[in-house]
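stage 2 :: seqdesign
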């Protein structure tokens, strides 16, 4: 059990049989009345984020999430296969479980797969990935680094906005949390 006073960003709790991760929290002590904790929580399975308010000192069940370093192997339709680098055990994850991570996965990439009660529930991607641009409009003479941007398709099929000087074949660094272009590698 964990008290709502001990909630922090990243803590996982179980509410009504569902597993949630605390995305944001705020302890509020109003001038009148009892203190409370306002949180933003994310459903680990569905990815849905919503706000929930708890009374200060309320007890919640702490969910124990296991994390394993795994290597992405291949995909079959909407099923993505990961392999434990120590035991060589393979684990399938669906496109729904992966969410936006499917836009940044390439073969042999290392990622952290999360498990709850022995079943895989999702994946934590590295913060930055380096991917090759496979399609983009050509740049024109006079384009500058501070100029506009254009869409570019990456080797994984994801489309991101990149500066005008980026060309097909360039390797770019992408932030997996926001899906934004960071730099050319």
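stage 2 :: out
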């Amino acid at each position: 059990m964990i008290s709502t006073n001990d909630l922090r960003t990243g803590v996982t709790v179980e509410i009504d049989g569902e597993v949630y991760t605390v995305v944001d929290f705020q302890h509020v002590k109003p001038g009148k009345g009892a203190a409370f904790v306002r949180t933003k929580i994310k459903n680990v399975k569905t990815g849905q984020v919503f706000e929930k308010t708890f009374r200060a000192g309320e007890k919640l069940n702490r969910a124990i999430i296991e994390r394993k370093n795994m290597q992405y192997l291949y995909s079959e339709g909407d099923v993505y296969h990961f392999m434990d680098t120590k035991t060589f055990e393979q684990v399938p994850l669906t496109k729904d479980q992966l969410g936006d991570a499917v836009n940044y996965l390439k073969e042999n990439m290392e990622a952290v797969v999360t498990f709850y009660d022995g079943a895989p529930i999702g994946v934590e991607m590295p913060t930055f990935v380096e991917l090759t641009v496979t399609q983009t409009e050509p740049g024109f003479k006079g384009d500058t680094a501070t100029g506009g941007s254009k869409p570019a398709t990456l080797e994984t099929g994801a489309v991101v906005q990149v500066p005008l000087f980026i060309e097909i074949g360039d390797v770019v660094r992408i932030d997996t949390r926001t899906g934004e272009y960071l730099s050319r590698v």
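stage 3 :: structure notes
- The first strand starts at residue 2 and ends at 3.
- Helices lie at 95-98.
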